[in-house]
């Protein structure tokens, strides 16, 4: 039926606005900000209904690691469709889910031995929070009912994940519905004191975390963090030393370490997993986004046999982990994930990313001297430019001025998808981007910044 309807941008946008409600969007904006209908995608490019294309510099909300419709991933999905689409994972198993679990255990930090599947990143966080709480309950530690997260943290928008999120835009409205966690000061290097290095800042913040644990360890199930980069908070970055110290503190005080690598996993930070840069193994590792190459919804929580054994008992003990999703371990999504991990095995992805990251750093370097740029920061192929009204004092532009939206609009005019976080222009491109495309990406961003800071 749809093939007989008009397929121009305007026609598709009109149909959309009659029936759809979009995520993380004030729909009123679309009275003046046109929706962008995408009809085809390939590699780094998105193509709209009017024949224009846009370089996807943000990997479609950080999911698309090897570009859109990568031939190897497409072939794997087509093959899987010929055998099995989906079967519930309660009481059943299938080869893609089994193979993927085996491969994840092989490539993740040592000591992670069990894989629990879910549908998306927020659901993975829910699993980890519940599993940590339930573990302590099974051990008779009923007083452990709280979690510690970092200031500025973001872990998702379901109620449990939102409870350990500290971004007011997402949290404030729903505060009466949420758990009450403790928030430790972030080791964000942007907040370092004058003359303090990123490593020094991390150590100082570890001291503050220690003080928090000294008071609250007996009631704390776990500390949850985004290793190396707090993405939705504005690509806030910290030194790997914080992860080392965090692991030691969790061991000392008897609390779990939950690593949310939903956005930073699968090569984004320069290593396959961010925790590798500190040579630490968390008690729970949450994965999603790049796990399936951006093809289909899938997430996984990995944990240790120690945790698993705390739930392994006769049925009448009541110790079973009570959590399920209808599409847990979906065969198609698992097959896409297997094809994604195959690319990491067969190609020098991380080495190539290091070259691209160095090129991106060189292109961004001139922005450090811009009068409205307070910081240019980068970890692997994640980079961010902090726009401010006053460089010396770091006075921010008022949020209601929506300076970042000006960058977004300019980018679309120049066939570039940039989606700033407030006044922070960031880059998280697919790994198939070329140096020449990085040049174009940064050039458009620089132009957009000039438009954005103009009074």
Automatic annotation (TrEMBL):
<keyword id="KW-0663">Pyridoxal phosphate</keyword>
<dbReference type="InterPro" id="IPR015422">
    <property type="entry name" value="PyrdxlP-dep_Trfase_small"/>
</dbReference>
<dbReference type="Pfam" id="PF00202">
    <property type="entry name" value="Aminotran_3"/>
</dbReference>
<dbReference type="GO" id="GO:0004015">
    <property type="term" value="F:adenosylmethionine-8-amino-7-oxononanoate transaminase activity"/>
</dbReference>
<feature type="binding site">
    <location>
        <position position="419"/>
    </location>
    <ligand>
        <name>substrate</name>
    </ligand>
</feature>
<comment type="function">
    <text>Catalyzes the transfer of the alpha-amino group from S-adenosyl-L-methionine (SAM) to 7-keto-8-aminopelargonic acid (KAPA) to form 7,8-diaminopelargonic acid (DAPA). It is the only aminotransferase known to utilize SAM as an amino donor.</text>
</comment>
<feature type="modified residue" description="N6-(pyridoxal phosphate)lysine">
    <location>
        <position position="289"/>
    </location>
</feature>
<comment type="pathway">
    <text>Cofactor biosynthesis; biotin biosynthesis; 7,8-diaminononanoate from 8-amino-7-oxononanoate (SAM route): step 1/1.</text>
</comment>
<feature type="binding site">
    <location>
        <begin position="121"/>
        <end position="122"/>
    </location>
    <ligand>
        <name>pyridoxal 5'-phosphate</name>
    </ligand>
</feature>
<dbReference type="InterPro" id="IPR005815">
    <property type="entry name" value="BioA"/>
</dbReference>
<keyword id="KW-0093">Biotin biosynthesis</keyword>
<dbReference type="GO" id="GO:0009102">
    <property type="term" value="P:biotin biosynthetic process"/>
</dbReference>
<keyword id="KW-0949">S-adenosyl-L-methionine</keyword>
<dbReference type="InterPro" id="IPR015424">
    <property type="entry name" value="PyrdxlP-dep_Trfase"/>
</dbReference>
<feature type="binding site">
    <location>
        <position position="154"/>
    </location>
    <ligand>
        <name>substrate</name>
    </ligand>
</feature>
<keyword id="KW-0808">Transferase</keyword>
<protein>
    <recommendedName>
        <fullName>Adenosylmethionine-8-amino-7-oxononanoate aminotransferase</fullName>
        <ecNumber>2.6.1.62</ecNumber>
    </recommendedName>
</protein>
<dbReference type="InterPro" id="IPR015421">
    <property type="entry name" value="PyrdxlP-dep_Trfase_major"/>
</dbReference>
<comment type="similarity">
    <text>Belongs to the class-III pyridoxal-phosphate-dependent aminotransferase family. BioA subfamily.</text>
</comment>
<keyword id="KW-0963">Cytoplasm</keyword>
<comment type="subunit">
    <text>Homodimer.</text>
</comment>
<feature type="binding site">
    <location>
        <position position="289"/>
    </location>
    <ligand>
        <name>substrate</name>
    </ligand>
</feature>
<feature type="site" description="Participates in the substrate recognition with KAPA and in a stacking interaction with the adenine ring of SAM">
    <location>
        <position position="24"/>
    </location>
</feature>
<dbReference type="InterPro" id="IPR049704">
    <property type="entry name" value="Aminotrans_3_PPA_site"/>
</dbReference>
<dbReference type="GO" id="GO:0005737">
    <property type="term" value="C:cytoplasm"/>
</dbReference>
<keyword id="KW-0032">Aminotransferase</keyword>
<feature type="binding site">
    <location>
        <position position="61"/>
    </location>
    <ligand>
        <name>substrate</name>
    </ligand>
</feature>
<dbReference type="GO" id="GO:0030170">
    <property type="term" value="F:pyridoxal phosphate binding"/>
</dbReference>
<feature type="binding site">
    <location>
        <begin position="325"/>
        <end position="326"/>
    </location>
    <ligand>
        <name>pyridoxal 5'-phosphate</name>
    </ligand>
</feature>
<dbReference type="InterPro" id="IPR005814">
    <property type="entry name" value="Aminotrans_3"/>
</dbReference>
<feature type="binding site">
    <location>
        <position position="324"/>
    </location>
    <ligand>
        <name>substrate</name>
    </ligand>
</feature>
<feature type="binding site">
    <location>
        <position position="260"/>
    </location>
    <ligand>
        <name>pyridoxal 5'-phosphate</name>
    </ligand>
</feature>
